[in-house]
Each structure stands twice: as structure tokens, then as C-alpha cells.
Amino acid sequence: MGKRIAKEVSIAIADAVKLAKAEVIAAYPITPQTHIVEHLSELVANGELDAEYITVESEHSAMSAAIGAVATGARTFTSTAAQGLALMHEMLFIASAMRLPVVMVVANRALSAPISIWNDHSDIMANRDIGWIQVWAENGQEAVDLTIQAFRIAEDKNVMFPIIVNIDGFVLSHVIEPIILPDQEEVDAFLPAFKPKYKLDPRKPITMGPVGVPEIYFEAKKAQDEAFRNTPKVIKRVWKDWAKRFGREYNAVETYRMEDAEVALLIMGSLAETAMTAVDKMRDEGKKVGLVRIRLWRPFPVQEFRRAVSKVPVLAVIDRAMPPGAVNGPVATEVKAALYNAGRKPRVVNFIAGLGGRDVTVEDFEEMAERAAFYRKKRPKELYETIGVRES
Amino acid sequence: MIPEFNKFKGFSLKNLPEVEPIAPGHRGCQGCGEILALRMAMKALGTDVIVANATGCMEIITSPFPHTSWRVPWIHTAFENTAAVASGIEAALKVLKRKGRFPKSRHVDVVAVAGDGGTADIGLQALSGALERGHDFVYICLDNEAYMNTGVQRSSCTPFGAMTTTSPPGERSFGQMTWKKNVPQIAVAHGIPYVATASPAFFLDLMNKVKKAALVKGPAYVHIYSPCPTGWGSRGEDSIKIARLAVDTKVFPLYEVIEGKYYITRKITKPKPVEEYLKTQRRFRHLTPEVVAEIQRRVDAEYERLLKLAEL
């Protein structure tokens, strides 16, 4: 077992990629992902990681090169944020549909305009339906664990889908935290070498990415969705194995103090730790508040989620992306869709908070819980409410 | 000179490879010069290759699922990124060989194939990136001088004066009003070891150049003139004749640039008039004698420039 040491989360993620023995890294620098790829290029330059590092000329080419590399049978990693993820957009669908298990860490950042290098979730929310498995890390340890797990999940023969590990830009990527990095032997025992059944190899030629004529396109997409919806079986098995080996548990939906909660906050990402503090504080004051955290965002864990919120009367869903003209923020929209046909379900109140690096404090979470409690007996009039915005 | 070239004696009619990495039965138009050029290129390369193909005619006609014309490993992902995909393949082979996860002794040529749109327009950035990084791969641009797969729209490789569906002649236009982008020269500017132009009318020359492109270590770029009867309004049976005329009129000169040094591989001492070439295709039918004369002047000047480069 590795020692617990203080490390910047980005550096620890790069170390995790090294422990996973990634073979090709194709990356283009973008704030706040830079520390991850800088450290990786250092590890390659020093010979600590035997990999090819492709300094591509754009994120579109980063994903394209990653696709070429993984199709040839090499374990492949990349990382990006915001505009970079947007530029990759086209290729993200293709990596999934061609069943190419690229592993990517996204240091979540606001999308332009106005240009902002700071944290929110608008980048990944524009990429919800790309067919990538998507998980969220709340702290540095989770970021490291999820990155190592990502290779095993993505490359499993019953998965063969790409995967994104979301980490909040700056507020998670750039903080120094106590983190345990597993030993190389432990990771080697957990993560076998990547040996895909089909790859680009002159010894056994195959055609990858043919034309999908109308007679076959729909069937191909249905098959992709079925395979994708089956991936949680493997994901859960990998998490179980991880818990056995490393003692840290992971679940598709995590709950905190939900036992008799009358109001629940729902959030994804590192703000959940702030929300936890707010929950503790309110519980001390006798207020029955709980917290639901979605770790597995795609495929969306409908059953686990329904179970987690079946008893709570009001659910405050916190979105960190502004959806112009939509009914709700993307998370609230998803959550409502998951609940609409459920038996017992809470009233859903949607808050939009923390855009473009705006801080979301313990007090903000308290306010959201209080406001949500108010809607227990009264329907909210607005589609969503914002938190922390100055009114002019 | 590049040492690998010494081992290569060149293809001749007596030693043409029998291998056909592209199977017959594809869905190309009659008289397609592009698939013909690609077939020759692939014969020269053989079967120890991995091909990355951009979106375009060649991709469409060779891979309608569940059929494939490819007897070698082949991948298509998108339009603008073929050079980037090839970069990833090349990097993967390198590390897999180093780690003993792919036979070290087995040489595999990584080949990127794209049309003029996928090369000169939407794919130029990815191409430049891959050439600059120095990946060991061959980039083949099959230039049929417009976006043929989508219905003959102009590209930056469409020649001056040509009519396409987005460069139509009219009251205020005589067709394409810009000169063809010179992608081979852009490739040369990257300082890569090998650049060549080729034509299916001179198929041995084409195959030799593609083979040399594969033999050099590092990036190589081959720009192949590819007649398109459907898009050019020419007769299918005339494709090779037109390709030959393009060379003999100096419209499409054949040359190599080996480590920065220019070699004209087919010197044109008695050039035919450009008009003779233009007459073979409906896309030039609307041109006035003035425009034809302007094209002739430009072709002469470009060729003079090329001769001077070869003297350096």
C-alpha cells in the first residue's frame, strides 16, 4: 500500500496514468488541464513512463490521434477542458460508436463566451450524449482512483467504450491534497495489459469505420446503446474489486445523511464536499437535510437514483451550466426524466449555481436547502432559481 | 541521397507486384482516375500497411457495410483528421514494438489517404501538424480538384476558371476565380524528407514514388492527380488521356523533392497548348480565349519557377 502524501491533484492524476502504464498520450494544452499533461510529458522525457507522447496541434487532432492509437492496440490517454472538449466534440461520438476505449480526464471549465478559464460544468454538459462513460471525482483521492479504474473499465471486453473522468478545474485540479498513490505492483495486479480483440494489424486485417447505409445504421446505433447500457455491470464489478484491494468504496449514486431527510441536495463533482459541510451544519441545527451525489453520470443509474430519493419529499438539484431556453438545467432535466414514471418521487427544485468560477459556499447550500424546504408544500413558480448572482 | 532508395530497384512492367490490397468490385464511377491511382499506390505499398482514410469518395466507394474492398487494415473516422489518426497509429506501433507487444522485425507502413478537400482545406492543419512532428508515414492526396463526393463543389485545389456547383460561371463570374493551392510546396516547406507529384497516366512513376515515400524515414507526401469524369464532365474512357495531357501541357508537372532538392521527373520540352487540355472537360467549356490565355501564362510561369527550383 502506498503512503499518503500531499500532492497537487493534477500531478497525482499524471502519476496515476503512469501507474496505469499508458502507452500513447496525445494532448493539447488548455487551462486548467495543463499540469496533468505537463507532468506526463516530464514522466515520458525522464523515461519513467514508456510511452509515445504526441504533441498534437489541436484537441481535434488529440482525440483523432488517440483514436488511431487505441485502434492499433495501445493503451491511450488524453486530457482537456472547455473549448478543447468542444473542439473534440465530433470525434467523441466516433470513439464511442467505434468502441475505442480512450481514457480522458476533463478538468471542467466554463465554455466561452465570455471567455473564462474558471470552473463550471458547461463543457461536459454539452457532451452528455456522446456515448462515453462519465464519472465524477470529488477529491484528489477519487481522481486518482477513478483514473486508474477508468483503464480497466474502458478496456474490459464487455465494455470497450471510452471514458471521461470529470474533475473540477482549479478547485480540484490545482489544489494540494493528501493522496495515497497505490504501488506499481498493486496496480499491475489490478490492471491487465490492453489486449483488444479487434485492432489494426496487418496480420489480421479488418475494416474499421465503414459506411453505415440506411439498412444498417439504426441497428448499429441500437447495438451500441444496448452494449453501453450493459457497462454498469462491469463498472460495479471493478469498483467491488477496487474496494477489496484498496479499501475505498465507489457507488454509482452516493448518499449522505439521507435516512430521514426532508430535503435533499443533489450535486456532482467537488462541490459535494462543501455541500456535506452544509448538511452537517444544518443537521446540528435539527434540520433534516441530506445529500445525493451522482458519481456515474453516463450511463445514468436510473434504479439506484430512484431508490436513493424515493423517501425524500423535496430534491434540490444543483446545475452548474446555464441552458438557454431549456426547461431546466441539464442535471435537473435528466433527474426529472428519471423520476417521471417512478412510483414514489420527490418534488424537484432546480438551482443554477457556480458558473464560470463563481464560488458556492456552505451558506449558499444552506440557502438552497431552505428554499427547497419552502417548496415542500408549494409548487415553485420559476423553472429554475439562481444562487450567488448579483441583481442589478 | 536517401540510403533506403539504393535498395529499391524500381518497378517495371516485368516486376509489377501481383498483390491487390484493394479488391475489385468497389462502387467507383466509370473511368474514376482516383481509385485507379489508389489501386496502383496500394500495389506499390503491399500488405504490411495500415491505412487511415479520410471521408470522401474513396472511403464511400470501398466500405459500404457489410462490404469492404480493403484486404489490409483500414480505418475511417472523419474528414479533417486523417493525418492525426495516422499519427496515433504510428505512435502506437512504435511503443508496442518497443515494449515487445508487436513483432519488432515486422515493418508496417502507415498510410494516410485523403482527397484534395480533406488535404488542402479541412485537413490542412492536421496534415501540417503531422508533417511537422515528423511521424514516419506516407500521406497520399488524391486530387480530383473539387468536393466530388458531395456533388462537385469547389475546393482550394480547383483550378482557375473551372466550373463547379459552387463556382458557377455567371454575369459576374467565369467559374473558379482563384488559382489552385500548391499543397506539395506547402509540404516541402515543412522540411520533410520526401515530396512528390504523380499521375495515374504514368503508373510506374506513380508506384515508384509511392514506394520511395514509404522507404524514407519520416513523413512523406505524394500528391496524385486524379481525373474525375463525373465532376469534370469528361468521358470515362478519356481519364488516362486527360491525365497525360495535364502533364504534357505543364498543367500538372511531375517532380520529386528529396530532402529539399527538386528533381523534375518528366521534363516537358515540347509542351502542348493548355487549350488542348481544357477542351477535354466540360468544366472549362465556358472559358473565353482571354481566360485561356491567362491560364497559359500562369502555367508557363509556374513551370519556369519549377525549372529554377530544380536548378538549385
UniProtKB/TrEMBL annotation, chain A:
* Listed CDD domains: TPP_PYR_PFOR_IOR-alpha_like (cd07034)
GO biological process terms, alphabetically, are: carboxylic acid metabolic process; response to oxidative stress
Q: Which residues form the Pyruvate:ferredoxin oxidoreductase core domain?
A: 261-365
Q: What keywords sit in the KW lines?
A: Oxidoreductase, Pyruvate
Record carries keyword Oxidoreductase: yes
Pfam families noted in UniProt: PFOR_II (PF17147), POR_N (PF01855)
Task: Give an example GO molecular function.
Answer: oxidoreductase activity, acting on the aldehyde or oxo group of donors
Which ranges carry the Pyruvate flavodoxin/ferredoxin oxidoreductase pyrimidine binding domain?
Answer: 16-238
**Its domain of life?**
Bacteria
Q: Which PANTHER family match?
A: PYRUVATE-FLAVODOXIN OXIDOREDUCTASE-RELATED (PTHR32154:SF0)
Protein's UniProt name: Pyruvate ferredoxin oxidoreductase
Q: Which organism is it from?
A: Thermodesulfatator autotrophicus
Automatic annotation (TrEMBL), chain B:
Q: Where does the Thiamine pyrophosphate enzyme TPP-binding domain start and stop, copy by copy?
A: 55-224
Q: Give the keywords, sorted.
A: Oxidoreductase, Pyruvate
> Could you tell me which species this protein originates from?
Thermodesulfatator autotrophicus
Q: GO biological process annotations for this chain's record?
A: small molecule metabolic process
Tagged with keyword Oxidoreductase: yes
Q: Per its UniProt entry, which superkingdom is the organism in? A: Bacteria
- Per its UniProt record, what InterPro entries does this chain match? PorB-like, THDP-binding, TPP_enzyme_TPP-bd
Quote the protein name from its UniProt record.
Pyruvate ferredoxin oxidoreductase
